[in-house]
Structure formats: structure tokens, C-alpha cells
Amino acid sequence: MTSLCKNQAVLLLFLISSPLLHSHLFTHAASTSPPITRPRILFMTGLGSDDDYSDDYLDDHSSPPEVPSPVRIPVLNREARLCPYNPCLENQEPCANLAVQSGCLCPGLSGADQPPHAPRIQALLPISEGDDRGKVEVQWCAPSSVVSGYRVVVEGTDGDALEFGDALRRGSLASLEVGTKVCVVAVNNAGHSSPSEFSCNRYDPPESSEHNVFAWVISGGVALLLLVVITSLILWKQNMCQRGKRDSTDGLGNPSYSTEGTL
Length: 263
Fold this sequence. Notes:
single chain; about 260 residues; five-stranded antiparallel sheet; 5 helices; Si:ch1073-303k11.2; transmembrane helix; transmembrane; signal
């Protein structure tokens, strides 16, 4: 009995230790056992924060987001507009004051520490009415500069100039000869402007209405005289024709009348 148990133990040990049998048994077991599925490992990179995860989760599982109502955003940059300032008009409020009051824009101005730009002469016109009748009025426009006053220089006056305030845009001069040069100069604490082609002009008065009326009177008188002469010639010619006809009629009515003499 003891030997039989030993024999069975030796046989079992042999079977276990045999490599061929072990390989066969393992192959058989592998063929008969169901296939083993290995778990798939996913490596995720670039994960966002917890807030992104929660947002994605809510986007996938929550209801569609509500469309926000339009919000009116105030416009900060308004369209720029120029100040209602005309440099050719007199006694206007300075453009700098208008800009402070309404936020409008003034044309570029050179500072008070720089000599002003030259003004522009607008017209040289003779004065035909009022106390200044016979004088010449000069009109100008202000430059884009800080100006404290104006000077009007007339050619041939040995440098003497007429002074005008910074708010004025016109002044009266003594009677000028045709072709006299007139210049307007702007002045401030830093100096004065230099003469230019548009700050100087020569006096060339337009034809006055009195001259035009006188010309029309002369033309009308000449036309009337010609009309009288032509009418007189026509009447004289008609008179001569009628007189000739009357003489011929009188000669035919007298029987004793003959061109060959008496009968």
C-alpha cells in the first residue's frame, strides 16, 4: 500500500515536471479558454482646467444656452466737427473759446511764441457813400495763428502803417492811385508775418456806376442825334419827290405848254 502511494506520487511529479506535457497542456488550455481582452489605455494631454471641464460637461448635458439681449454700448469717439468760426468776419469769439465750450475743432494754430502766418487780402474797394466817401476799404482774413493785431502798409508811405485790432477784418485808407500796392501784416509778441503773394495786392478799382451811367447817357445822345438826322433826310427826300411830281402835273395841264416852243 505504501509503495503504491509512492508510485502514484512519482508519476504525478513526472507529469508535472515534463516540459512537453506542460507545453501541450498549456496550449490546450489556451485554445479552450476564452480570449483575453487587454484594457485600452488612453493617454490624454493638454487637459484644461476644472472650469473648462465643467463648461464642456454642461454644454453636453444641459439645455441650449439662452441668447443674450443686445446691450447698447456708448460710443466714445464722436465724429469730429469744425467750430463755426469764419476767419473773414469781424468781432467773432475766439475759436479757442468755442472749442472749450462745445468740444469742436479749430484749425491748426501756431503758438504765441512763433511769428504769425500772413493774413490774406480779400478785397480793395472804393468807398462811394458816407463820411469816408473817396477813400479805399481794405478787407482781409485772419491767418491760422495767434494774432494780437494787424498793420496795413501802403506803398509809397515811407513805412508808415495803420494799426488795427485783432478782432477787426477791415479798415479805410486814404484815396489811392490805381496800381498802388497794399499789404496786411499780422503781429503778435513773437514778431510779425512776412509779406506774401496773397497778403499783398495792387489797387485796381472796378468801374463805378456813375461812369457806366455817363457812358449810357453819351451813347443815348449819339443814337438820338443819328435818329434825328436820318429822319430829316427821309422827310427831305419825300418832299423833293412830291415837289417833282407836282411840277410835272402842272405842265401837262396847260395846252399852251410845249417842250418844242410856241405853236
